[in-house]
TrEMBL record:
A single BP term in Gene Ontology: response to oxidative stress
PANTHER family for this protein: REDOX-CYCLING DRUG-SENSING TRANSCRIPTIONAL ACTIVATOR SOXR, REDOX-SENSITIVE TRANSCRIPTIONAL ACTIVATOR SOXR
Protein's recorded name: Putative Redox-sensitive transcriptional activator SoxR
Transmembrane segment boundaries: none
Domain called HTH merR-type: residue spans: 13-79
Pfam families, sorted: MerR (PF00376), MerR-DNA-bind (PF09278)
Domain of life assignment: Bacteria
UniProt keywords, alphabetically: 2Fe-2S, DNA-binding, Iron, Iron-sulfur, Metal-binding, Transcription, Transcription regulation
Length: 152
């Protein structure tokens, strides 16, 4: 059963936030240590997260799924206001920071998809025509990594 935060609840416990966000309590504590989210402590030293932390956690998880490093996520989250709940305009402003990077990632994925189209099912039986073939490691002169996949 999924926990629903009461409409008038201004804060959530770590367990409530974990259940509602689908993120383990240990991950939430990690995000807090890394400066991605914050909480206040009760007199009993229990964490209490503001309601808008749920949106921040969703943003963090979505960004991670897109391959964006936590350090980059942290930097952009610093652009959000701390004295109020972020508005749609605040979120739009920070998403604009990544538009060019995401567009380049999309282009790179499309190139990868197009290069791999001929390889699917071929088992590389046609190495003389394979765009990814690298006989005698000729591409080492151009640097480390999958050169044909990361260069234009």
């Amino acid at each position: 059963m999924t926990t629903h935060l009461a409409p008038d609840a201004k804060e959530a416990t770590v367990g409530e936030l974990a259940e509602r966000s689908g993120v383990a309590p240990s991950a939430l504590r990690f995000y807090e240590r890394e400066g991605l989210i914050s909480s206040r402590r009760t007199s009993g030293n229990q964490r209490r997260y503001s309601r808008d932390t749920l949106r921040r956690v969703a943003f963090i998880r979505t960004s991670q799924r897109l391959g964006i490093p936590l350090a980059t996520i942290r930097d952009v989250l610093k652009l959000l206001p701390e004295d109020r709940t972020p508005t749609r305009e605040d979120w739009a402003r920070i998403s604009e920071c990544w538009r060019a990077d995401l567009d380049e990632r999309i282009r790179a994925l499309q190139r990868l998809r197009d290069n791999l189209t001929d390889c699917i099912g071929c088992g590389c039986l046609s190495l003389d025509r394979c765009a990814l073939s690298n006989p005698w490691d000729e591409l080492a002169a151009h640097g480390p990594g999958p050169r044909r996949l990361i260069e234009d």
